[in-house]
Design goal:
Layout: H1 11-19, E1 37-43, E2 55-60, E3 66-67, E4 72-75, E5 78-82, E6 86-87, E7 92-96, E8 109-110, E9 123-126, E10 132-136, E11 154-156, E12 169-171, E13 203-206, E14 210-214, E15 218-231, E16 233-239, E17 245-252, E18 266-269, E19 276-282, E20 291-304, E21 310-316, E22 321-323, E23 328-329, E24 332-333, E25 336-341, E26 351-357, E27 364-369, E28 377-383, E29 389-395, E30 399-402, E31 418-426, E32 429-430, E33 434-438, H2 456-465, H3 489-498
Parallel strand pairs: 7-8, 13-24, 14-25
Antiparallel strand pairs: 1-2, 1-11, 2-7, 3-6, 4-5, 4-9, 9-10, 11-12, 13-15, 15-20, 16-19, 16-21, 16-22, 17-20, 18-19, 21-25, 22-23, 26-27, 27-30, 28-29, 28-31, 31-32, 31-33
Length: about 500
């Protein structure tokens, strides 16, 4: 580390201070290694509003804050862009050519000298010691991706790939609600996960990539976390077109508080204006401890303003994040498009719905009459412990068997009442929900290993899962004999009541 001392501070004076027990503070900082910070996105074509709406985004892959003072980005071999400021762990750093290049997201730094040739430049990121931390298009040829006509940006696909290779770059597919200098939509994701992101970490997504709405006044969409590990908190900016949608309400789901932990959920329009919905939540635990697995984070209801067939892109905007008990996490954020059809398709309701034990033990069979209005498929759902309904499958006929082979289904505990829903579907339009419930009676509650006798092995199995809930790896639905989402003394009572009984 280099340090400049005033000339008047002589060697003798410094030695005197040290002899007197004083320590000369020279400071410390996290020393980044190659690949810790990467060039993540490049708007080399500007925008449809102006060729001067150029910007470069950096991403910090490390778990430490990185001080960018003294860093440079060399453009075609010259240290043209000198950096200042810092970049948070797993955070983004947005460098704009002018303060209006991205109008609705503040730049981390303005460098008016940015000049990116449409024919291609080489970009090399160096630290204060001139060590190369990252490089992009280092041969100086044509840009790996991006589009000079649509002005879509060039996005890094996987930030964990450190090599400067064209295969790790792609043209942005969608925007995140950001606007350029005259208000046009940017096809790119400044200060947010790239639309082509394929790196490690969980996925934050809506119900599906495309949500169809047919003739209704409102639409309900949900946000999920998939494959989360130690998820402790989140904050999202959800951007949507105000000419098609109007925010009505947001409701927290159970995932973050699956183990009974209190949470702090809030939702509000940004500056009380339609177009950007700010949502945040955190588990109220200190020290922090998150949850694992997959589940629903919250539901949003929008009013449909459209009067004719149209579509609306709904995106996770800049500043969206998730964090674990230590800090921010890398994640994939997947947008959705709501397609509105003002014509109303008529779909009937399934009739004569029945439920009975299946042909094999530990199975239930649902049957119903086909819909007279011409339904093309039927959705079957089962109620989960948290009260929500999970889709078990979609079938084309009037029957469905739920057993251990069904993803999210089966795992029956004898005597527990399981609730189902069946919905007829025609041309992506769903009919009314029909509910039914049933139980498997062939077996004994407490026989969690299905050996047809409740004995010491069942006690051992329950003990190994004791105290676990839905968010824990140790949770096993076969041990949860009272179907309340936690394996505790109530389940042990069932083992005790039937202990020694055989089926």
């Amino acid at each position: 580390m280099q340090k400049t001392l005033k000339k008047s501070f002589s060697l003798l004076a410094m030695m005197t201070l040290l002899m007197q027990g004083f320590t000369l503070e020279i400071g410390s900082a996290f020393a980044a290694s190659p690949g810790d910070v990467v060039i993540n996105e490049v708007a080399w074509a500007g925008s449809t509003d102006s060729a001067n709406d150029e910007w470069i985004e950096l991403y910090n892959r490390s778990n430490q804050t990185v001080d960018l003072a003294g860093w440079v980005i060399e453009d075609d071999g010259a240290p043209n862009y000198k950096l200042v400021g810092s970049i948070a762990p797993h955070g983004y750093f947005l460098i704009e050519k002018n303060e209006n290049a991205v109008t609705n997201i503040s730049a981390d730094q303005i460098i008016t000298g940015i000049s990116l040739a449409n024919s291609g430049d080489s970009l090399v990121l160096k630290d204060p010691a001139s060590a190369v931390i990252d490089s992009v298009n280092s041969n100086g040829g044509v840009w790996y991706s991006g589009n000079a006509t649509t002005k879509a940006t060039m996005e890094r696909i996987d930030p964990d790939v450190k090599d400067d290779v064209a295969s790790n770059w792609a043209t942005a597919k969608v925007g995140n609600g950001s606007k350029s200098s005259a208000g046009s939509a940017i096809i790119g994701t400044p200060r947010a996960a790239n639309s082509n992101y394929a790196g490690s970490g969980p996925e934050i997504r809506f119900d599906s990539a495309e949500i169809n709405v047919n003739g209704t006044a409102t639409v309900n969409i949900s946000v999920y976390a998939d494959n989360a590990l130690d998820l402790y908190a989140y904050g999202f900016e959800i951007d949507y077109p105000t000419n098609l949608l109007s925010f009505q309400s947001a409701q927290e789901a159970a995932f973050l508080k699956a183990d009974g932990t209190s949470t702090a959920f809030n939702a509000a329009l940004k500056n009380h204006m339609e177009g950007s919905l700010i949502i945040g939540d955190a588990r109220l635990l200190n020290p922090p401890k998150g949850v694992d697995g997959s589940g629903k984070l919250f539901d949003i209801t929008f009013k449909i303003l459209a009067t004719s067939n149209s579509s609306a892109n709904v995106n996770f905007g800049g500043g969206s994040f998730i964090s674990n008990s230590d800090g921010d996490l890398a994640a994939k954020f997947s947008p959705t498009v709501i397609k509105y059809n003002n014509s109303v398709e008529t779909v009937g309701t399934v009739t004569n719905l029945t439920i009975a034990p299946g042909d094999k033990r530990y199975s239930l069979k649902l049957a119903w009459d086909s819909d007279a209005s011409g339904a093309t498929s039927y959705i079957v759902k089962r109620k989960k412990v948290d009260g929500s309904f999970a889709t078990l499958g979609t079938v084309n006929s009037g029957n469905f068997v739920d057993d251990d082979s069904v993803s999210g289904g089966g795992k029956f505990v004898p005597g527990v009442n399981y609730q189902y829903q069946v919905v007829a579907v025609k041309n992506n339009v769903q009919g009314n929900v029909v509910n039914i419930s049933g139980k498997e009676t062939r077996g004994l509650a407490g026989d969690n290993d299905r050996s047809d006798i409740v004995n010491g092995k069942d006690i051992e199995n329950l003990a190994r899962s004791f105290g676990s809930d839905l968010a824990d790896e140790q949770y096993n639905p076969l041990m949860d004999t009272n179907f309340d989402g936690i394996i505790d003394g109530k389940d042990l009572i069932d083992v005790g009541v039937n202990f020694g009984m055989s089926y």
